[in-house]
Design a protein that fits this description.
Four copies of one chain form a homotetramer. Chain A is α+β, with helices and mostly antiparallel strands. Chain A is built from 20 helices and nine strands. Chain A has a five-stranded mixed β-sheet with strand order 1-2-3-4-5, with helices on one face. In chain A, helix 2 (21-35) crosses helix 4, helix 7 (105-113) packs across helix 9 (141-154) and helix 16 (330-345) packs across helix 20 (415-422). Chain A is globular and about 75 Å long. The two termini of chain A are 49 Å apart. At the C-D interface, helix 3, helix 5, helix 6, helix 9 and helix 13 of C face helix 3, helix 5, helix 6, helix 9 and helix 13 of D.
């Protein structure tokens, strides 16, 4: 059923929930765009279509997505015939014919919408909206597949530009860092300013079609020795160190800025390119490491079962102020062991349960150290019982670790952390 | 048959013409690239693969293309099964599975090669090489389809940047204009300099991934009245006019620079964006027109059949110097009529036979005037009997003309040219 | 007495308060710099001298300035001889010899210090320090004359660059606007951001040798009708207007940023160039006007003598909250009249007593309107009794007004203001 | 006599050769400019004055310069009174008064002309014209002194910007290098292109007020070993070397571009900053040397007196083709000795007679080697008998050599050159 006939049916049905005029207009633009043979005219139509789309309210967008999912997918019969024809004669012509049938018309539609001024940003925004409703509208996943396919191609590494962010960066961009920062909230311009001082570095990827919009950014502190606590790094009043005496680059925050690019991974690249960049600027740096949250620890801990004595100790965590005032000597020791166990043994499929661990270990980093009271913020206590992890990027081992992780699910960890995990009172999981 | 087994077979066969070590190395890089899950490692492998590819000689490249065509296409059986499954249950999952099977692995390979530094330029270069051998190796057309598909997406209008070229442009870029100019050869820096004076404009599209490489460029003269001859425009010594007194923008040369982007059309967009740009700078411009060659006229004329008197007149063209010295009064009149006939009636399918006419009429321009002795250069005489055409871009009519051209194959032409064509002694073609 | 002998004497005198080692070092650098014939070596010495100077404490700087004033001035005898020689024979050679003797060695010293990296900024800073101590050390005025002479030449209009400031400007520069703003304090980044929205414009002069340092900046609001109150312009929550519907450009704040450039005037130029710039961007603007404080009004009013009834009314101003709550009907009327009188009749020499009036009237603006409760901020009430003035820059009359002001001390004022001044109960001043 | 009365007199005299209307207009602009108190109005008047000046023909310019020299100089009587007043009371006020009287009004005039758009370039051009006529009009030297004084201040090192010139530089600038090159003429774009290849470097100083105008530029070849001949460096077809294997930076051409800045020296700075820049880019460079002409050698040789045998040998030089075909064995040996003698012993005051030697030795370079047939071009043979010199800039010794040269007139030369000079048959000059 074509979009037009579907529309007629809906309208004929007189359903109150029917396609309204704005969607009719949007679809007529979309179809005109698909029919247009001239690039110049296409640019104008694409611009009009996006303007109409942007003016839609939430309900209308849902209708539009429903139609995109239903009416712009390949027709099963036609596809099967083209596949059969290719099986009979696997010629270039039949392959091309088959490809044409299999590619949803949506993809070409999105490609043409991208021609409008601001088209790429609009499509990234469209996918953001789509992802927000995907759980409630699983049928939209076909749209998401098309958008993801195109965006992955357009946001190919070849098209990204690594840029340093500092106090010379336009306020327009800095303001967005304040908005986007997802790990350790930036509390204002003064906070951002401290994070851009001479003993810090900040880098972001940009894309020519999203000017002034960081795609992903990372914050680095240049320190002597590996940082164990994040609060000193976030302290506005901390004296500014000299980068020339630093021997560690501490990655203490990494934030993906564009919801609409979810699932298109940039972090791996960013960390390694920034490490290269820093190595060039400061050849004396000896260690590239993170100071990372362990966001899933407390949630997992709630569900774990401990025996009497340990259970009693851990019960103290129910008090939100458990870490203030005196602590039983054994509690820190126990929590560190359990946390090491969580990072090394708790799984999501064959990978670690903790998402940050999955990210860094998958990148080829090694889990080096756990830090007691590494993040005493409310969020740090609530998620990680205050513990933070250092993952180290040993440049010489990163590729080997990365391969071992993906092929054999090996987690690179320091002996100290292995020992902590073994000392955890929980039973070792059955070998898989 | 996988690339690896194909290789083994070839090598086992011990054929002297077998796959040599360099191709083996290249294929192993390609396969490693397809297997790699980390973007950072991918960048490095992609760079290595492109370095090996670039070092290949012609014969080795042919072998590589043969293997790409044969072993990186979808397997017909597998595709048919996936299509059947989708017919049985047209779910998102099965659609995605089908799409995955139908997309040649080549496409993903090219996408990943694009991650290397200079990857886009390398792929544009690869397609150039491929196109040069395509006639002799028709099986490569599947590779071309994949490259064209990706390049069309990456060179989407949204990713192009219109830039003015003038005497402030880096020599690096200007030098390329001299090399690339395909319509009226630039005879040296002094010639280029005249073409960039204050009564001229030159614009090009650029792409972020091909820095310093124009994609397409156009040369414009700002004149009083519509130019009828090109030699005055190319005359180094012509006095520099004042743009403020001009009423016409004459597009007298447009050149596609990148062979590897053949078939991905930019000219339509470029002309219209340049017209907009000029209109902004010079609101008093009243006409945007071309001074264009008619490159297919003489070749077509050779094959046309004329009656006695006209045939005798036209026979004079066999003398290369026919236009020097006195001409029979009737010859210009006859040639102008026959040329109008050629442009309006001679067809390639339903479109005009003349490629320049196809381009401008397809863009929505109107054929306005023919100019006797418009181009007296050797090439101009050899191809067009010295005649040049003015196509006019009436901004208000361009879209209407463009649609009428594509839907009904209507050629927009001035009454004067219609009259010339009717007066041509050749018979009107049968109505189609 | 040469610097060296002066030093010896001081040191020999063994006075504890004598020239310390750092000044000795600085002077030896200065003398080496004056003796040096190579530019490259000069750059290095100049850098060293400035480094020593910057490290001096306040007392040492005073000593340095004392020596600069005493020992680097021309010797009266030598000068008189050279002047006499020139009178006898006014030849080029003798003129040049005379000029060489009359120019203090300080000037050449400052010129050479300017060769160091950051030299210009250092000299601007040095003059700032000098001016702070000038009242207490009148002998330094000769140093000031030399610095002012050089800075005026180096900060010649030809060397200034007008730049628009907006939300794309580096934070580094924006931060300085927040620091420097002298008229209506910027209360934070959010306040600055509102002042850079689409219905506002901000421009500054920059100099190539003071990168990232605004020299002077001006803030403009694009409004419908001439603004009468400043608080709405400073209101963060005010809706952003459309510049295309504005007919007035209101200059509501102008700030000189560099203390060290005091007395080198840029404001006249800035206002007029900004007016030109705005006229280009918004040809429909019909009026360029200020919304200005009247900073000297209350201070002058304190000293003025009024008769019984008026004196009683004005006595209410002693209550800091006089304007809150009900006001006697006659008070506003009286204050407006007195204020008009102040602006038109109160003099400083032959010019208006009010410094802001002197600036705008001297620029050729006309005093157009007084606004009751134009600035209700604490400062606005304290200085101007809340009244603000609109000065209008009629582009066609600016030069004529400027000339009339400087030649005949004529104040261009609207009839309404003339009338207010005539109605003031104070006696008209005697004609001069 | 004031300019106005001078004018009246001239005009009243009715002399045909009198001041014409254009000069009257120009002078009235100049006087208005000096009288103007507003910067904005000054800019406009300055622009008008310069426009009138530029339109003057040569004779009118001479008249203008005559008036500038005569009527804009300080009045001897007034100056003497001010000097006397200062002798009586050397107060700051009287010093300032004296300075005001001694400074010619021309200087302030030039300062104000500099406010016009393009003012600096116009003043540089004015001085160029002035210098061309200075020998015939010695009275203009007072104007030159004022212009030189101001230009020296404005072209202070602090205001110059070192920029690399390469094939990315705008054609607009490259074209000027072709025009200006004064040492080894650039024969066209292809020649320039070779000089900008990867084994070469080119740097220039620019000034913000002369955009696109190089002030001075230098060409460098990166070579293995010190170059002895210039023709290989100028050979278009010479293979491009790898800068990473070079150990020498050969400065083979340095050109001052602005006649109007004659006598304001930039070469010393440029060479040393370029050496620093190169040292940074190529830390393995071991030697910074020139390959220099000896422009005064042949002219001096003509006048030198030799004894019989040597005279006979040297007489061969009268044949322009003397160096082609076989040479008497003793001639090269003799010429090299005489050339060394010329460089070390022939004097202009206390400095070397050869201007290139004066420049490099004054900069602190050492004369290292003479090269037989170093420049076989027509000019090279005519000026230097084909011999070229290598001056070496040993960074560690440059300052010491520079001081020894200026204080004691010591020429730093290699033992080999000292020996050649001693072997010269000419008598050693009397010790000074």
């Amino acid at each position: 059923m074509s979009a037009a006939s579907f529309l007629r049916k809906l309208i004929a049905g007189g359903s109150k929930g029917g396609v309204d005029e704005r969607i009719e207009l949007l679809l007529s633009h979309c179809n005109a765009l698909l029919a247009e043979s001239g690039e110049y005219a296409s640019m104008a139509i694409a611009g009009q279509a996006l303007a109409v789309y942007k003016a839609l309210d939430e309900r209308a967008r849902q209708q539009f997505f429903d139609i995109l999912a239903r009416d712009y997918s390949p027709a099963p019969d036609v596809v099967a015939r083209a596949a059969e024809a290719y099986r009979e004669d696997p010629s270039p012509e039949r392959l091309e014919a088959l490809q044409n049938e299999v590619e949803p018309r949506r993809q070409e539609l999105f490609r043409r919408l991208n021609m409008a001024a601001g088209g790429t940003a609009a499509l990234v925004g469209m996918r953001k909206t789509l992802l927000q409703g995907l759980r409630a509208h699983p049928q939209w996943s076909v749209i998401d597949a098309d958008l993801r396919h195109l965006l992955r191609s357009w946001f190919n590494r070849g098209f990204l530009r690594l840029e340093r962010i500092d106090w010379r960066t336009p306020a327009l961009v800095l303001e967005k860092l304040i908005d986007y920062e997802a790990v350790h909230a930036i509390r204002g311009w003064w906070d951002l300013r401290r994070r851009l001082e001479n003993d810090r570095r900040c880098f972001a990827f940009f894309h020519a079609q999203l000017p002034d919009e960081p795609i992903i950014f990372i914050e680095v502190a240049l320190t002597r020795g590996m940082s164990a606590q994040v609060q000193p790094l976030l302290d506005k009043g901390a004296p500014v160190g000299s980068p020339s005496s630093a021997d560690c680059a501490m990655f203490y925050s990494i934030t993906n800025c564009q919801e609409g690019l979810r699932g298109i991974s940039f972090g791996n690249l960013l960390i390694k390119q920034v490490a290269e960049e820093l190595k060039r600027e400061f050849p004396h740096l000896r260690r590239f490491a993170t100071l990372s949250p362990i966001p899933g620890f407390r949630a997992w801990l709630e569900k774990a079962t401990f025996n009497g004595e340990n259970a009693a100790l851990l019960a103290r965590l129910k008090d939100p102020a458990w870490h203030l005032g005196g602590l039983p000597e054994d509690l820190p020791k126990l929590l560190m062991r359990v946390c090491a166990y969580y990072l090394l043994r708790a799984k999501h499929g064959k990978e670690p349960l903790d998402p940050v661990a999955r990210f860094h270990l998958g990148n080829g980093a090694a889990l080096e150290r756990l830090n007691w009271m590494g993040d005493t913020s409310e969020q740090g206590m609530a998620r990680s019982a205050g513990i933070m992890a250092n993952y180290v990027y040993w440049l010489a081992e990163v590729e080997h670790n990365h391969e071992a992780y993906f092929r054999e699910h090996v987690i690179a960890a320091s002996p100290a952390i292995e020992k902590l995990a073994r000392e955890c009172p929980l039973p070792a999981p059955a070998a898989t």
